[in-house]
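Notebook B, p. 112. Complex prediction, attempt 2.
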Amino acid sequence: MQRIRVWRVSATDLIIWGIGFLIGGIALWGTIATLREGLYTSSDWVSFLIFGLAQGAVYALIALGYTLVYGILFMINFAHGEIFMGGAYIGYFVARAFDESGFLDSNPILALAIIFLVAMSVSISMAVALERIAYRPLRRAPRLVPLITAIGASLFLQYSFRGLFGTGIKVYPDVEILKGSWQIGGVMVLRIHVIVFVCAVLMMAGLYWLVQRTKMGKAMRAVAEDKDAAALMGIDVDRVIVNTFIVGGALAGAGGVLFALYNKQVIHTMGFIPGIKAFTAAVLGGIGNIPGAMFGGLFLGIFESIGPPLFFTGLGVPSPNQLKDVIAFSMLVLVLIFRPTGLLGEVLTEKKA
Amino acid sequence: MRSRYLLISIVALLALIVSACAAPAAPPPKEEAAPAEEFTYEDEWGVVVIPAGEPLRLGFVAGLSGAGIDVLGLDEKRGAELAVKDKGEVLGFPIELQVEDGQCNAEGGQTVANKLVADPEIVAVVGHMCSSSCIPAADIYDQNHYSMVSPSCTAPSLTDPATHKPIFFRTAWNDKIQGPAAAKFAYDVLGVRKVATIHDGSPYAEQLGQEFAKAFEALGGQIVAREAVNVGDTDMRPVLTRIKAEDPDLIYWSGFVAEGAYLAVQRADVGMEDVYFMGADGIRADAFIEAAGDAAEGVYASAANPGEAGPGMEDFLKAYKEAYGEDPIAPFHAHAYDATMLILNAIEQVAKVDPEGNLHIGRKALRDAIANTKGYQGLTGTLSCDENGDCGVGSVAISKVENGKWVVVSD
């Protein structure tokens, strides 16, 4: 009996698998056609890869915030994109002031360090306030309640910034030491991309060390495993949850400044799209899983950058770049069809799922 | 018992009132005698009645939020406000603008249009600002017979005989004019032969890009890439790398400030800093120069031709500066002024005041009066509406950023 049931496939499964293979097939067909056409040189492909890595590194930093909070509270903090925005936004005012006083040019490293610190502390305060005001009172409420609250908090923050600072575009000043490019193996690599990527990787390594090697990280892992048991062992669960929001906020704030340093423009709506993308990245990698969020972010960034020319050029699709988001979300669909727990996700226990 | 008497007396009183109303022969209890001849005002599409003492209200819709959109909208709002101030009143009725944020997308346009048509005292609408907002809104206004005059919806489809809605008018040009003007400039003056077009997926940007491409190809040029990005995208390097593979001489961007600035800045990152960058009225605002910084130098953009300006332009610019403390911040202030004036003048022609002092405006009559506008001396030139709702002058000038300022280089 058992064996027979294993091989029986329902109609829904068939349709879903069909969709999956269709998407995969189109992508494969497009790829072959593009490569045969040979419009792009290999250095173009390397460029695409590097753009994707830089963008993906920022996605990863935000995605970590989603994943950390999900891992511990099993809620999706949709206001996380606004925490990212808040850091970048306040960092702008510091950067502008430094630029006007000439400090940014005379002492760029120190100035950048201060900008990062300010942005990260703003993001941390926002995250902690959010947890205290919006989420903690709802700790025992049904799961849908904090989710809706998060969406509300996201809009509240967005429109507070709009009200406080206006709707105009703010532009980060140019930093001399971040400008220019390097020639690496015949490929022009922008310095800022390398710096963004290296900073992000360092921060992720730091996070990994924090979670795996420190007492605080141990407490976080314990709470993620079982809140009640952890409380019985003498761990202050509220404290650990606040710590989680602090770590997530700091990463988002740093990500915000990195994003603003290489994209320049800051506006109150800037958190929305990266927030959604980072959430996608977290799900791609397996939500609740820290290396998964890092990997998912980079993976998504690279696919968004390489995907449009690779899959669509050969198929003769006009203006493929417009379909960037289609690629990102189709990939999410594919992963969820073939690996519902995400690329690096463990098999979820009943409680977590 | 007492309550029953009360009830009977109320019923009796009501009966008395009803019979008094029903019987015209009965002398009115007080008030002056009925008017000698009855006031009638009928209109196929219905009549807006504004009670004496209340202001005449026009809807004003523009994109007042969003990255790089808000400056365009604010500029239009100021133009419309100055028109209201200059006009002062219509037949003794003060004028009021009901300002709404129609954003720059279909949802915003529909939401605001539905809100305005729910208010029967809104006479007509100045707006909307973006074609993506205008197109669905025009459907809603058409069903409810509200006339609209847009200062800046330039998409060709809006006044195409096949898709034109009778209530739609515009004081802006049709992009059938702007696109070719830009193409001619690029081909003749800049001497480029290979162009990549990029739009942002909005009807305005897409249609403008197509008009440009059509005209440029007709001149003998070649469109080597037709690209598109999404509104809200920030990393344009992949799309620019793609375009670079086709080696264009000029990038033609038909969208708005935010994405335009990303493109202008990031083209240096992929080694295309020497490629010309050209935009349209969507980027010809100081906000673009601010957002793009040094990369804005040498960027071209097409917009209304100040050389065509009507006689009132100088006073208008003075009044603008006086009222808002700065020079116009985007290209469509004068078009908004003219759009507002067009409606107010038409109202003046068709409105009637009844003996009680209420203002009556027929919606069909108003629409016809706007459509019959011929040779009106506006700020943007001499306006005449054609049968498809195009009232604009349609003269385009090309500007260039020089030393951090937009300077007209060709008209």
